[in-house]
Structure formats: structure tokens, C-alpha cells
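Re: duplicated header lines in exported C-alpha cells

Our pipeline writes sequence and C-alpha cells for each protein into one text file. With two proteins the header for the second block appears twice in some exports. Here is an export where it did not happen, for reference. First protein block:
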Amino acid sequence: MHVLIIADNDQHLEWIKSPLQATGLSINVIYAHSIREAMSLLKSVKFDMILYDLAFSEKGMAENFTRLYASGSKAPLVVLTEAFGDPEAAQALQFGAATHIVKDRQRVSVMAESFKNILLQRDIVYN
């Protein structure tokens, strides 16, 4: 399985590998530090999930999502947020995100289960 992570903070990119690895699935994690880089990757790789960090500094979430959806990818777009009740997460859902997940370093196993459910197209247990 292939997961695209769109974020421009390398610390966010590195720690998110832990819950992805904890799914027990064989996952190839690919990073994009810009929307342009993500668009290029979407042309050459069939992703099973796209993770979009809401701390991503390339503003214009609506435009970014429009561009990502225009790529033709059918992968669920999941936004990663810092806290429950983040208004940007609610906005992301309005723009078409499949769900949002709080980046919780204390509950890696719960995040892993959510990622696994999304990848296996099951109900999400954590958001």
C-alpha cells in the first residue's frame, strides 16, 4: 500500500510513520513538501491514502484540495490536526476530506487502528 503525506515540517513527517507502521500492513510512505510535488507524485503512483497536515504552510486549503481531487486519485484524503475541535478540520470536511485525525503521540495504537480501517475501507474509530 502507498500513503502520501503532504506536510512541510520534517518532524511531523517522521513521527507519523510510527502509527502507519503499527497498522501491521505493508505501507510505503512517500512525502510531499509542496502541492506541486504532491501533484507530480499523484501522476505516477496509485495511493491508497493521502494524509494532509493542517499545519501545512502552503495556505489555500480549498484550492489545494481542488487540485488534489482534480488529479483523479480515488484515495481518501485524511487531514491531520493538532487538537480536537479544530475549526480548520471541520472546514476540511466541507471541502471534501474523508475525515480528520488528531496527531496524538500518546495514542499511537489508536491512530494506527484508524489508519488501518481507512486503508481497509472500514469504519473509522478515531477522529
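Second protein block, exported in the same file:
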Amino acid sequence: MPAVAVIILQKAERISALLEERVGVKAGTSLEAGLRHASRHLPYDARAAGRRLAAAGQLARRSAGIVDVDAHRFDDDYRVLLRHLQAIEPGRVRPPGPSVWRFVTGVATAVASVVVLGVGLAYAGLI
């Protein structure tokens, strides 16, 4: 395996480790799966960089396609993704709660908003 392929695989493993550490995503067998699960915690440019990084990792595993990887683009993508993942504090990202709980809190917020609006309009003498 060429040295460039080893470096690419090491960087991909580093990103997988950061996904697990910072976002709490169990990457499982592939970086692609981890990035899919963490996509809502990353901005668009980091998601795009992650997709390109995962594709380069797949090429590095095959080792024959390593010629197709642009080293400068790969390093830029790695830095973008690394910067965004390191900015996330460990434990800050919580797994989503049950969807029923989100629905109930959304309805409660809407009802409270309508009540506050009604009280404000009544106080102003508009209703």
C-alpha cells in the first residue's frame, strides 16, 4: 500500500474518532455512516468535505485508485472537517429525544404563545 494511502486512511480514522468523541456518533464500519448520522450537526461545507474525504478513503482502501485523489483538495477537506468537529464541545450534542416529547413541547409552546398574544392584545384594548 502506498504511503499516501496510509496517510489518507489515518486521517479518515481521525475524523471517525472525532465524530464519536464530539458528536457521539458510532461510526461503525465506515466513515460514510458516521457522517450521515452527524450531518445535522455540521454545516454544508463540512458535510461536503466529509463526503469527499470518505470517497478518498474508499479509493485509498482499493489502493489502485489512489492516483485519482487530489492531495491538496484532500488536505483542505480534512482541515475544514477537523475545524468544525473540534469546535463542538464533547457532550454538548445530545441525542434527540422521543418524537412525542418534541411534539408535546411544540404544542405547549404554540399554546403559550397564543395566550401571551391574547393577553397582550386584551391589555392594549384591541380585543
